[in-house]
Design goal:
about 400 residues; alpha/beta; 13 strands; globular
C-alpha cells in the first residue's frame, strides 16, 4: 500500500513528544507500506543529513516551511468568519495540497494520513482517497473553556472548540477515520460524533533504547521533571511543585535535589531556580541518563491532554514515577503497582517520602512498570495497532464505504 503521510512536525531528530510519536509510527508503517512524507519544518530543521535519514524508510520526502502567519485586520475577520478554527485557516499551505495532487497524479496512492489536527484541511485534497486523521486531541481546547474566568473569555475559548467539532464531524461523516491517544480523548470525540468509529492508538516507547543501565546509578534524594516549560501546562506543573511541594520536601530532606530538563525559552525562572536544590538544566539532546540517575520522576501536571511519554520513558528506564491522576491520564496503570498517584500537595510530599525511605518500593515499582511497557507500550505493539487501522480503512474503501469529500 502507498501512503501519503502529512506531518505538522519535522520528525527527526525526535526531540519532543509529538516528534517521537510521528517518527516511530512512520517507521512501523514503512516496514509494511510505501511512505511518501510531506512534512513541515522550522528554520534549521530538515537539513540534508536529516532528510537523508528519513529517506532510509520513506520513499520520498518533501519539506515545507512551517507557517508563522501574521494576519492583518482583514485576514483576522476572515479567520473569525471561517468554518475552520483560526489556526487551521491561517496555517493552511496551498503548496501542500498541490504536492498531494502531484503525487496522486503520478503514482498509485491508497491512503492519506494527516498527523495532528493542524493537517486536517489537507485530508480533503483528494475527494475519493481514504484518509486517517491521526491523533486528534480535544482536551486542551476543553481545558481552555473550563479555565475561562468570564463570559468573553469563555466565548473566545469555546469558538475554536465548536468549529473543530463541526469540521471534524463533517470529515468523519464523509469517511475520514479518526485516531486518538487515550480513552478519555475518544470519549470527547464521541460526545459530538456519537455514531462514528474512533480508534485509540496510545503513545509508546522504544523499550530497546529506553532501558535500565547499571552504569548510571540513581543519586539519592534526587527528583526530575522532563519537559520544556515553554509549554504552559509544563510551566504550571513545575511552578506548583517548586512553590508548594518543594519547601515541604526540603524540610524533611534538606539534601534533596530537583532537576528540570527542557527549554526555558524566554520564561522567567529566576524565582523558581532561586530555591535550594532546584536546577533548570535546559534542553538536553537525550534525557535518558538524567532520568536513570534520579530516584524518581515527578509529574505534577494539572492540565493538558494526550498521554505522557515522559512517564512511559521513565517506566521503561526503571525510574519510579509519582504523578497526579491528570498526569497519568490515558495510561493503563494501577496506583501503587506501576506508579504512585498524588493529587494534592501533602499527598505529593508523602509519596516522595515513601520512595525516599523505602528502597523495596522503588525496586518494585521499577520492575512492574518495565514489564507493563514491554507488553503494552513498545512502539512495535503500538505500530501494529495503527497498521490494523490502516487495514480496516482499506477494507472499508474496497467495499464501497464513503470516502472523504471536500468540506
Amino acid at each position: 500500500m502507498h501512503i501519503i503521510y502529512i506531518s505538522w512536525w519535522w520528525p527527526y531528530p525526535a526531540n519532543n513528544g509529538a516528534k517521537i510519536r510521528i517518527y516511530n509510527l512512520l517507521r512501523q508503517l514503512a516496514a509494511q507500506h510505501t511512505i511518501t512524507l510531506l512534512s513541515f519544518a522550522e528554520p534549521g530543521e530538515a537539513d540534508a543529513e536529516q532528510v537523508e535519514h528519513m529517506q532510509q524508510f520513506c520513499r520520498e520526502v518533501t519539506v515545507f516551511p512551517r507557517p508563522h502567519p501574521r494576519p492583518n485586520k482583514f485576514e483576522l475577520i476572515q479567520g473569525y468568519l471561517s468554518a475552520w478554527p483560526r489556526s487551521l485557516f491561517y496555517n493552511y499551505c496551498p503548496e501542500v495540497t498541490e504536492a498531494i495532487e502531484k503525487v496522486v497524479a503520478t503514482h498509485s496512492v491508497d491512503l492519506l494520513i494527516g498527523s495532528q489536527v493542524d493537517t486536517m484541511r489537507y485530508l480533503q485534497a483528494i475527494p475519493n482517497l481514504p484518509a486517517i486523521m491521526e491523533e486528534v486531541e480535544m482536551t486542551i481546547l476543553h481545558n481552555h473553556v473550563q479555565q475561562a474566568h468570564n463570559l468573553p473569555q469563555r466565548f473566545r475559548a469555546q469558538l475554536p472548540l465548536i468549529k473543530l467539532e463541526h469540521v471534524l464531524t463533517d470529515l468523519m461523516r464523509r469517511g475520514v477515520v479518526v485516531t486518538v491517544v487515550s480513552e478519555q480523548e475518544k470519549q470527547l470525540v464521541e460526545s459530538f460524533a456519537p455514531n462514528q468509529v474512533v480508534y485509540v492508538i496510545p503513545n509508546g516507547v522504544d523499550t530497546v533504547v529506553e532501558c535500565p543501565d547499571d552504569s548510571h546509578k540513581p543519586k539519592p534524594y534526587s527528583l526530575i521533571y522532563t519537559g520544556a516549560i515553554t509549554y504552559r501546562p509544563n510551566f504550571e506543573a513545575v511552578a506548583y511543585f517548586v512553590r508548594d511541594v518543594w519547601p515541604l520536601v526540603l524540610e524533611k530532606y534538606p539534601q534533596a535535589q530537583f532537576t528540570v530538563t527542557g527549554s526555558t525559552g524566554n520564561t522567567d525562572i529566576s524565582k523558581l531556580s532561586a530555591l535550594p536544590g532546584v536546577h533548570f538544566v535546559g534542553y538536553l539532546p537525550s534525557v535518558r541518563d538524567a532520568v536513570r540517575e534520579s530516584w524518581a520522576m515527578v509529574v505534577p501536571l494539572k492540565h493538558g491532554g494526550g498521554t505522557r511519554l515522559k512517564i512511559l520513558e521513565a517506566m521503561a528506564i526503571g525510574t519510579p514515577v509519582i504523578s497526579t491522576a491528570k498526569g497519568a491520564e490515558g495510561l493503563a496503570v494501577q496506583p501503587d503497582e506501576n506508579l504512585l498517584i498524588a493529587n494534592d500537595t501533602q499527598a505529593m510530599v508523602d509519596a516522595i517520602s515513601r520512595l525516599f525511605e523505602d528502597a523495596e518500593i522503588r525496586s518494585q515499582l521499577a520492575a512492574v512498570s518495565r514489564n507493563l511497557v514491554e507488553k503494552h507500550y513498545d512502539w512495535s505493539v503500538i505500530g501494529q495497532s495503527l497498521l490494523n487501522v490502516v487495514d480496516q480503512v482499506a477494507k472499508r474503501s474496497s467495499y464501497g464505504h464513503p470516502s472523504p469529500n471536500p468540506v
